[in-house]
Amino acid sequence: MSKSKEKFPSSPNTLHNYFARSPASTKKPPGANPSTPTSALAAGPKAISSASSPQANSGTPKSSKAAVKKEIESAGKEKRPAVVKPDADEGDDEPIGTQKKRRRILLLDDISDNEEEDAGGRNNENKPNNNNNQEGYDEQTGTKRFALLSTFERPLETADTSERQAGKGEKPLGGTDEGPVQKKIKLEALAEPHDEDPGAVLDEPTVWTHQKLDFLKPNKIKDIHGNRPGSEKYDNRTLFVPDSYLNTLTPAMRQWWILKSKNFDCVLFFKVGKFYELYHMDAEVGVTELGFSFMKGEFAHSGFPEAAYDRMSTTLVEKGYKVARVEQTETPDMMQERCKVERTTSKYDKVVRREICQITVMGTEVFGQQVTITANHQPRYMLAITESGRQGTAGCRYGVCFIDTSIGLFHLGEFEDDNQQSRLLTFLSHYPPVLVLHERATPSEGMQRIFKTLLANVKREALTAGTQLWTGEKTLKYLAETVYGGSSSEGSKWPATLRTMLDETDSLGLTPKESYQLALKALGGCVWYLQRCLLDQQVLSLATFEEYVPLDEHREATETIAQRIDDAARAKRFMVLDSITLNNLKIVGSEGSLVDRMDHCCSKFGKRLLYNWVCAPSCIKEEILQRQEAVTELIENVDLLQDVRQILGQLPDMERHLAQIHGFGLALRDHPARRAILYEEHVYGKKKMRDFIATLKGFQSLLPLPQMFASVHSQLLVRLTQKANSNPAGAFPSMEKQIEFFESSFDHEKALKSGSIVPEKGLDTEYDAIEQEIKDLNAELEAYLAEQSKFFGCTVKYFGNDKKRFQLEVPEGRAKKATGDYTLEGTKTGKNATKRFHTEETRRFLKQMMLLEDRRKSVLKDLARRIFERFSRDYDMWKGCIELVATLDVLTSLAEYARTEGLSCVPVLLSKDETIGGKSFIEIEEGIHPCLSSEAAENFIPNGTAIGGDGKANLVLLTGPNMGGKSTLMRQVGLLAVLAQIGSRLPAEACRMTLIDRIFTRLGASDDIMAGHSTFLVELNETSAILKHATADSLVLLDELGRGTATYDGTAVAGAVVHFLADLKCRTMFSTHYHNLVDSFHEDPRIALGHMVQLYDGGGKKDACMVENEEGDDPTQETVTFLYRYTDGACPKSYGFNAAKLAGMPTAIIKRAYELSKTVEKEALKRKILMKLLKQAPQNEIKDLVVKLKSFQF
């Protein structure tokens, strides 16, 4: 074998190094299409040649008797790989012999004719030859270190075992260890011909086997039930594969096609030994998306080692694919035993069983032993949504269930909605899903519109009602039978949230209330999908259920019974920010959003909580004041702030780690994952230990918090950091005993190195009992050895290992004393010649020791799981601690935000009862837009705003020039209101306001092509939602309503909306360029006029901006300087021609527009004078209009 190694080329491109890099780009490299030699795997049984060998059943390959095959290819000819035809047995799969070298020698050793003796890393199923050996493990990854490859090919991982077994004659341990080598490849280092023209060999386009299959053609493809695409019953998750084709395949490939037919929408990672193989259309995905290379053969084939599963599956899932992990669930030895028990003769049974252990798609991520926790802290929701129309009324009723599978958090709820789907759109904006499940029946028009717009880029799957989208009754029955062990009437195991959704008249507690039928139906869809992905046991066992109630619905969700509440104020727990407002104010999103600007959280779970706070600011005054008090105390105590942030910054994502550890400790019932044969378990064990110990150390680092915050006075900080038995009492849990238990239970350093837990004495009684028995047996062995030494009159030693242990090694001169009770096992010649014997006693000792060691191994294997399970028993305590620390993290983030930005304004919040006349108001002095960076804020001109209150109008009609800062001012007011009700300090000098229950925005102008809505219809839809849902406590921001239609129609609509909002008395900022609106409302006491202003020409006169050459006839000579200040009063002009000039429009066009503007304005003045005369208006008003009319020059 060592000679073989010397033949390898010296190339750094090893398989290990290949997978140590990130996946290659999707760009296909030149010459990626290989030639297509005949593949034994794709061929039927008739294509397999049968050849027997005397050594075929011995399991001991002998290279001296190997057949040698040479292939020499001349320059300019197509490369043809050698095809190795091994022995064919009904229980064996055909190997593929392929190489990418132009010239090589294939040494074919004796080939085993059954899977037991071909139990190497790949079990000889669908296994291509390759040009590498392996030797030793890589210390960094714990995987085998692969020898050099010139191209990406599958490494043969049994090479190093051949020498060991050839020398020792040992039989391999089936499936769980490396088996005997079946093929050895020696490469002959031959120089390529110098006269070869690289361009002479052209790769022809490859037509793969799956591209020629009739049942895969678009006009003939069907699902597993025979339904064609276009049928209402067609299920694109499955594929019909005819039996006639399956019967022509090898056993392993038949397995693949059967699994593929049931999971046609998945990329199968098909386990073969230590490798995940991708075949046919899946192999094309691997080459395109992961940068693999095709292996030679008529069918597409690629793959990667088990150790790379995390990165490969995560990459595909991130790109929108669904990945199914297929594992071997028995070893070749187990397969042989099964065949004996079942007395089967079919070749299709003589193959190791494989089962799908998990299906992963974006939205069902569960971080287990093979998948590490990602750096992305945002939750990825799987959403199931159901709907039903309401008879006699507009709108729909929706049931929703959305899950964060990474932490097992379920939200479900049911609500009615209007034609604009305001609540549904708000819900989707607060909890954006990455996977949507819906009923297969045709959705409503509104739902289709959402699918085309807001959810256009979200993966959707249709479920069949009844069988996949379960009814509420079926869902409750399943939960009772499989999760909670009985009906809800039996009590305690059922979550309180689910119990509130059950019909109280049903004694069994398995009938949903009428008002929750859709919600539980949506839950049924989620449960079915988790079941299909084989995640139901893991996620449901951890499930925490919370009811989702729309923020504007007038009822409370309690832990007992959800009921309608008469007092609407109690329902206003949170400020409502709908999807339009979140988008218009840029509250959430990437760079430049409010969340991005103020996020100084140290932990991932803190960042998630901050997002929830910003999307739903509090409407409870006492809660906001407590947050303000806590933030102020943290700002004043900078040392405390920095110390606690240092602790929080070292924490892992403990919320997800908690769910992960729960999965580690879960005893799955009849799940394929329990039967899976994994070859990198030592690596996974190390990862488990690393994550568990990191979580444990994270909780341990939080223990000093009560002492650190012992002197604080803030009520909220006391509750978050002080224990229940302290004075004052808090809610921080006492975790010392639990942490001490796990600290002393096992050696953490050894566990990190070995990946397993060896318990300290006293932790596990069963392990201690076995250890004691082994200790006693060793004592017996020592006593027996002393007895034998005395018998022979010399020093006798034990010799041997494993199954040959405890042989008595006696010097040859003393061995003559051995009687018939001593069985000679071997001799040693030479200077210190000895003889080795077994006796009945030593055989008994060996058998007893091996039984004890097997028991100890079994106990240790399950001990780690039981340690994790014991940790999860206190799940509620750990979870409660994380929630408290998350709140503390958000408060420190608000304090750090205020400290770094130099914010000193603590908003004064009042209830309406505390104001004069009970009027809502908002007053801001010198406010600054909070999303600006520090550099931009220095040049930003602050503005004050006063809306409502004693003696002031609740509606401000805002005018000003184009680009004068009207929209910016409106957004600024909205964002400052959000910050105030989060509990943050503001970038302003002062702020006083009553609480706001909802912010509405109608800003900007755009159409909705996908929904078929024009710009004006979009404006009216948004305005309609405002008029329906706004209350006297709302803040409404309307920007230039009516500009999307004719001037008169737009003016009329805008005027009617202004009247409605003025009567409603909600705080409103309404910007417009319709100056006749200003004329209509300038004397209305309900409405105040305001515009952007600064001192003009130093003369004390106020105007919208500084203007030069305003009186000239040439608008292109007019220069406008924007001053971005707000004050009372109306702006006389909009200075639209200045905007045209800034946009670079031709001068002639601007002049012509100016002339037309004067003409139109002159005609309007004439009509206005006529109307005044007819109405017998005061003479002074008519005179002013006449003077203005005469001033027009043409």
Count of extended strands: 37
Q: At the fourth CATH level, what is the homologous superfamily of the largest domain?
A: P-loop containing nucleotide triphosphate hydrolases
Percent of residues in beta strands: 15-25%
Shape field:
elongated
Q: pLDDT average, as an integer?
A: 76
What is the end-to-end distance?
103 Å
Using the coordinates shown, work out and report the CATH topology of the largest domain: Rossmann fold
Whole-number count of domains: 6
Q: Portion of residues in helices? A: 25-40%
Using the CA coordinates, give the radius of gyration: 39 Å
Q: Strand order across the biggest sheet? A: 19-29-30-31-27-32-37
Q: Treating each run of at least 4 consecutive H or I residues as one helix, how many helices?
A: 39
Oligomer: single chain
**Which residue ranges are poorly predicted, with pLDDT under 50 across at least 5 consecutive positions?**
1-202, 556-570, 1094-1110
Largest sheet: 7 strands, mixed
CATH architecture of the largest domain: 3-Layer(aba) Sandwich
- Backbone structural class: alpha/beta
Which CATH C-level class of the largest domain is it?
Alpha Beta
What does this structure look like?
Belongs to the DNA mismatch repair MutS family. One of its GO terms (biological process) is mismatch repair. Residues 760-787 form a coiled coil. This is DNA mismatch repair protein. Residues 68-81, 155-171 have a biased composition (Basic and acidic residues). By secondary structure, the chain is of the alpha/beta class. It has six domains: 209-360, MutS, DNA mismatch repair protein, domain I; 381-550, MutS, connector domain (Nucleotidyltransferase, domain 5, 2-Layer Sandwich); 604-758 and 858-901, MutS, DNA mismatch repair protein, Chain A, domain 3 (Orthogonal Bundle), CATH 1.10.1420; 765-838, Orthogonal Bundle (MutS, DNA mismatch repair protein, Chain A, domain 3); 908-1145, P-loop containing nucleotide triphosphate hydrolases (Rossmann fold, 3-Layer(aba) Sandwich), CATH 3.40.50.300; 1146-1193. Helix content is 37%, strand content 15%. It contains 39 helices and 37 strands. A seven-stranded mixed β-sheet has the order 19-29-30-31-27-32-37, with helices on both faces. Strands 15-14-11-12-13-16 form a six-stranded mixed β-sheet, with helices on both faces. Strand 11 (381-389) and strand 12 form a beta hairpin. 40% of the residues are buried. The model is unreliable at 1-202, 556-570 and 1094-1110 (pLDDT under 50).
